[in-house]
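In practice, a research group might receive sequence data for several interacting partners and want a quick structural hypothesis before committing to experiments. The following worked case mirrors that situation: the sequences arrive first, and a predicted assembly follows.
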Amino acid sequence: MIGSTASERQSIPKAPTGIHGLDDITGGGLPRGRPTLVCGSAGCGKTLMAMEFLVRGATEFGEPGVFFAFEETPDDLTANVRSLGFDLEDLAARDRLVVEHIHIDRSEIEEAGEFDLEGLFIRLGLAIDMVGAKRVVLDTLETLFGGFDNEAILRSELRRLFRWLKDRGVTAVITAERGDGTLTRQGLEEYVSDCVIQLDHRMLDQVSTRRLRIVKYRGTHHGTNEYPFLIDSDGFSVLPLSSLKLDHVASTERVSTGIERLDAMLAGGVYRGTSVLLSGTAGTGKSSIAAHMAAACCARGERCLYYSFEESPQQVLRNMRSIGLDLAPWFANGMLHFVSTRPTFHGLEMHLATMFKHIREFDPHLVVIDPISNFIVVGTPGETHAMLLRLVDFLKSRQITAVFLSLISGGKALLEATEQNISSLIDTWILLRDVELGGERNRGLHVLKSRGTPHSNQVREFLLTSHGVELRDVYIGPEGVLTGSMRLAQEAKEREAAEARRQAIARKRREIDRKRQTLDAQIAALRAEAESQELELELLLSAEEAVDRRLTDDRLGMALSRRADAHTEQEETA
Amino acid sequence: MNSEHEVPAGSPDPDVWELRLYVAGQTPKSMQALQNLQKICEEHLAGRYRIEVIDLHKHPKLAKQDEIVAIPTLVRKLPDPIRRVIGDLSNIEKALIGLQLVPASTP
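A structural hypothesis for the assembly, expressed as C-alpha cells:
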C-alpha cells in the first residue's frame, strides 16, 4: 500500500463509535464491516467499551447492534450499564439491540468426535436479522477455549467466524483477555488483523490510570500514543493528549477584563478564546482580577464557569463583595456557575473528564480555574502539564476564553516560572507580585506577555478598593518603584512642590504688580511736577507780561506827565 | 420436526430416554452423528429411547432457546439431569460417558 499522509485522502470506511475521543484518534471510528479486537486485562473496561459502541451506534447512528455475552447474563449486563445511563431493556424493546448470553458450561458438555460452531453462527445470524444489526460485539470470545477441548476445531471455527462476520458486513468488536507477553491469551490477534485496540489499567503512586492504545489499524493512520481514558457516569471517554492538529479559530475580537486600566495595558482586552494566566504569590489579588473578568463576562451576557478549588461559592461571593464586586445577581440568574471541589478529591484524569463534561453541558464563554497549582498535588508535573495542555486545547477549540490562576510559592527565582511550566500554552500572562518597600507590601502588576498584542511594558500598582480593582501608575525613583504609602508620600511631595511653585509665581506676580504701581506713581509724580513747572512758567510769563504792560503804562504816564509830544502818542495808544 | 419414535409417544415412562439431536442441515457430520447415536441406543437402550432430530437451519430459534453452540449436539432430556454431548459421536466411549451409559471411572 502506498503510504498516504494526506488526511483528506479517502481512507477506509469507518463506523463512528460515538465514544468521546476515540473517534478523534482513530480518524473517524472503527473499520466498517470488519472485526476489531479489543484486548486488555481483567477489569480494564473492555465490556463497557464494546457496549458503548453498540449503544451509541443504536441511539446516535441508527445502527442496531447485537451483543453476545459469553460471560455475563443479559440481566447482569443491563444492571451494570444502567449506572452509565444505558437502558438496554428499552433499546431491546425498540428492536435496536439484542443482548444474548451464550451459556457454555464445561461440566455439562462431553465432546465425542468432530463438531463445529454452527449453532453459534445460527444464533448470531438470527439475532442480526432480528434487528437488522450493523454492529456486533462478542464478549469474550476466549471463553470458548475454556468450554471446548478441541483447540484445532475452535481455531478453524474462529477463522470461519471472522470471515463470516466480514461477509455479513457487520462492524464487529471482539474482546479478549490479555495474555502473558501476548496481546491476547489465545492469540486471537492472528485472526483479527484490521484493528487492534489495547486497554490497560495501571497503578502509579496509588493513583490508577486507564490507558488505551491502538496497536494496529490497517488502511488508515491513527494516533499511536497511549491515551488515558476514563469510565465515569457518562461512559467511556478517551482523552487525546492533544488534538492532532492546531487549527483553532483565531478570533480578533477582544474581550474586556472588566478593569479599565488593564484593558488599556492590553490594548483593549484579551482576544476571545485565548488563555490568560494570572500568576502570583499568595494574596496578590489573583482571584480578585479573575472575579472582575467573570463579572465583565456575565455583564456582556455570556456564561461563565468558575472552578473554585479553594473556596466555596458563598465564600467567593462574600469576599468579592468586600471589594465592591457583587457577583450574586449573576450567580442567581445562572450566568455564573461555580464548581467547588478539592483537587485532591479526584485523580487528574477524572478532573479533566468532569471538567470537559461541565464545559460541554454549560457551554460557557469564560472559564476560570482557581487555582491550577493544586493539580500538582494530584499528579506528577508531567501529567499535570499534559492535563493542562489538553484542557487548553479543548477550551481553544470551543473558543472559550480561559483564565488560569497559579499560585507561586515564594522565592524570586521562581517568580517568572510557573510550577506547571505551562507558560508556553498561555497567550496572555499577567504577573502579580508583592512589592515590599518602606515596611509595607503592596501589589504590583505587569503583563509579561500577550501574544499578538502591543501590551504595556510598565509595572502598575494595583489596589483593592471598596469599589473594585484599580490600577495606578507607580513612581520610579532612584530606589526602584514606589508603591503604597511611599507612593502617596511621593504624590504629596509632588503636590507640595507644585503648590510652592504656584505660590512663588503668585508672589513674583504681586511683586511685579507692585513695581509697576510704583513706577506708575513715579510717572504720575514726574508728570505732575512737569505740569506744575509748566504752570509756574505760565505764571512767570503772565507776570512778565503784566510787568511789561505796567512798564509801558508807566512810560506813557511819565510821558504824559512830561507833556512832550505826548498828545499824538496818547491818541495812538488810546 | 424430523423425529423418530422408537417408543410410542405420550407415555411418560421414566425408563424411556428422551434424546434430542441438534443438527444444521444434512452435513456429513450430522449424518454421522445420527448413525452413531442410533447404534449406541440400539446397543444400550434397545426399546426404551426416543430420538428427536432438530435441524436448526429450519428452526433457528431453538438454538437460542436450547442454548446450542456446537453442532451436532446431543441433549439427554430425560432422565434427569440434562446431559450434553457434542460432536459426531465417533468417539463411542466418550459418548457413552457423556450420556452416563457407563460410569466415567471405568477404564
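Before designing any experiment, note the following. The interface with chain B takes residues 100, 102-104, 108-120, 122-123, 125-127, 144, 147-148 of chain A (CB under 8 Å). Residues 1-8 of chain A have pLDDT under 50 and may be disordered.
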